[in-house]
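Work Package 4 report. The design task specified in the project plan requires that, given a folded chain encoded as structure tokens, an amino acid be chosen for each position. We show below one input record used in the internal validation round.
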């Protein structure tokens, strides 16, 4: 890829310093705010901020983006060239020139409220042309290339309001205005393009652009790319899911980014930055109305200080939180293993450069036993946390083969590799859905618990499974979706308001899994959160709406229960009893764990079985009566 990768930042000292602190990024895009172009003094301060943090000393590239509103609070509209717009454009262009940006981006939009949009007539083309000519001249006269950016169908404008623009969504709009004002170039935004396509698909005609193949993201890239200077890359889903982290939405971004890298000089990763609107800055304790448990710090320090630790699935949200938590006890080394490249890269980039040497990131698929054995032999861990798994209940019903490959064969590979490497302690992440094992996913996790107990008995080693419950704010979880929707003031998409679930925060989850290693040392084979908060999904939605949304009556859109889901979850199944709290937030599950299924597989599964052979054996074990011994519902 020939393009220069950039991160986005406001002209704020702390935020800019964060962007420049480590990582593989080679520049920043400065997104101006309304106050930055209020007058000469505020503009000087914005320029000085960029200079003070040493952008040029770091030999980093800089690009600039104009504000979305002017200092009065009026939104930028390309059909309105009043005196404030003239001043704002001129100061934005001056800023770009003074900080060394070769370009300035402005959105091609006319933000209208829904009522205004419906009542509006044809766009005043003469007014738009006057605006864009002034913008172009302001840039060109200062040696700056003027760029216009495509916009999504629904604009929230960072204010919580909803606006629509009659121009700027379709790539044809940008080409048409370049014909009128040839000096214009383009900034391509991938999530904006994807959302425009999605909207045109489900509600054709509103923008006079019903969906067809010309709205594919690849078409935006090919049509706009030859005249584009900048690409804003982020994922998207549905109609409102804008600016999502790479790989978390509906877009297949890898081929798009590769192509953009051939066409544009600068690619801005808009979501690879700390964002105060993201779920990790939200206090989930307010939702639970309870403080998190206090970790047993002395015992944890003794357990992990100076030790070598390995995490599978370490690129996930819980794995990342656990690795950070364990890093506070200064182990000798933390090896983070994950089969998802983007997750590993993202985790590495979020690490404090001063502690990065503590972490070793390894790209490895747990479904490959020989490779996994080599990595464990190289890392020589004394403690292993096995978090890698597929977890979506409905997908397990659709793709059972994939779930046995990862959750069962992958777990067995980890347990066998740990035994071969002489690992002292292994903690395996299970779920409360294993208690009654009523879904295929729940049955794979219950089988994982049996595999863990079987491995402990066979090796005479410390092995335990910990049943996680719903972790607030974890990637892809309903709670994270609710938070994003509440902040966007859109209805919360709820499966069933009466579904009963247990909830803990991410810090509690990290503490829980870490303290499970303490229980493993005591010979506990199965453990659970102690007294997690029980709420219906409706109650959770209401609390998030009250804390993060506009307040008032919670707006909910019911989706219906997905395949494999149940109305209620429990912590224990037949023959299982929750024990006393051993450390804050964790207790043992007292039960006799059967290992008949694990023994049956162990006798039949060759140590070097191929993927298809292993899959067939695991599927048969899942289907044979009595092997899994699912808990009865009394």
């Amino acid at each position: 890829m020939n393009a220069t990768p950039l991160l986005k930042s406001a002209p704020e000292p702390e935020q800019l310093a964060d962007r420049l602190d480590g990582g593989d990024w080679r520049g920043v895009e400065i997104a101006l705010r309304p106050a930055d172009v209020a007058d000469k003094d505020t503009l000087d301060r914005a320029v000085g901020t960029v200079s003070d943090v040493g952008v040029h000393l770091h030999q980093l590239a800089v690009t600039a983006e104009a504000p979305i509103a002017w200092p009065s609070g009026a939104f930028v509209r390309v059909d309105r060239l009043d005196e404030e717009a003239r001043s704002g454009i001129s100061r934005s262009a001056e800023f770009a020139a003074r900080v060394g940006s070769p370009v300035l981006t402005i959105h091609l939009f006319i933000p209208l409220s829904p009522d205004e949009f419906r009542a509006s007539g044809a766009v005043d083309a003469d007014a738009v042309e006057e605006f864009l000519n002034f913008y172009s001249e302001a840039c060109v006269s200062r040696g700056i290339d003027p760029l216009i950016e495509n916009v999504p169908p629904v604009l929230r404008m960072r204010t919580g309001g909803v606006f629509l623009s009659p121009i700027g969504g379709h790539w044809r709009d940008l080409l048409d205005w370049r014909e009128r004002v040839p000096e214009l170039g383009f900034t391509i935004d991938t999530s904006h393009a994807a959302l425009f396509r999605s909207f045109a698909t489900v509600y054709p005609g509103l923008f006079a652009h019903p969906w067809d193949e010309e709205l594919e993201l690849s078409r935006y890239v090919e049509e706009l790319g030859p005249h584009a200077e900048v690409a804003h890359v982020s994922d998207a889903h549905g109609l409102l899911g804008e600016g999502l982290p790479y790989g978390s939405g509906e877009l297949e971004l890898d081929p798009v980014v590769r192509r953009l890298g051939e066409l544009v000089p600068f690619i801005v990763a808009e979501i690879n930055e700390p964002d105060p609107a993201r779920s990790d800055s939200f206090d989930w304790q307010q939702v639970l109305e309870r403080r998190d448990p206090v970790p047993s710090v002395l015992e944890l320090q003794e357990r992990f200080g100076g030790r070598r630790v390995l995490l599978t699935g370490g690129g996930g949200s819980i794995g990342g939180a656990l690795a950070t938590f364990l890093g506070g006890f200064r182990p000798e080394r933390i090896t983070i293993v994950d089969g998802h490249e983007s997750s590993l890269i993202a985790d590495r980039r979020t690490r404090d450069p001063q502690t990065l040497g503590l972490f070793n990131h390894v790209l490895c698929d747990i479904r490959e036993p020989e490779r996994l054995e080599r990595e464990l032999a190289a890392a020589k861990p004394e403690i292993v946390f096995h978090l890698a798994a597929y977890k979506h209940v409905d997908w397990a019903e659709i793709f059972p083969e994939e779930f046995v490959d990862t959750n069962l064969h992958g777990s067995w590979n980890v347990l066998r590799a740990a035994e071969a490497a002489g690992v002292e302690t292994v903690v395996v992440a299970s779920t409360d859905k294993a208690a009654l094992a009523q879904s295929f996913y729940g049955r794979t996790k219950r089988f994982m618990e049996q595999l863990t107990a079987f491995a402990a008995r066979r090796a005479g080693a410390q092995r335990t499974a910990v049943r996680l419950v719903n972790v607030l704010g974890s990637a892809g979880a309903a709670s994270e979706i609710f938070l994003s929707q509440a902040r966007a003031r859109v209805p919360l998409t709820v499966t069933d308001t009466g579904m009963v679930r247990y909830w803990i925060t991410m810090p509690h989850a990290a503490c829980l899994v870490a303290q499970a290693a303490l229980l493993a040392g005591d010979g506990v084979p199965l453990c659970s959160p102690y007294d997690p908060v029980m709420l219906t999904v409706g109650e959770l939605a209401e609390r998030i709406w009250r804390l993060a949304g506009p307040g008032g009556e919670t707006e909910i859109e019911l989706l219906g229960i997905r395949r494999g889901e149940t109305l209620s979850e429990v912590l224990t199944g037949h023959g299982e009893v929750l024990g006393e709290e051993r450390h804050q937030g964790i207790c043992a599950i007292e039960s006799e764990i059967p290992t008949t299924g694990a023994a049956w597989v162990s006798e039949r599964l060759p140590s070097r079985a191929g993927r298809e052979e292993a899959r067939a054996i695991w599927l048969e074990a899942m289907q044979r009566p009595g092997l899994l011994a699912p808990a009865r519902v009394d």
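The chain has 22 helices and 24 strands. Validation will be extended to a larger panel in the next phase.
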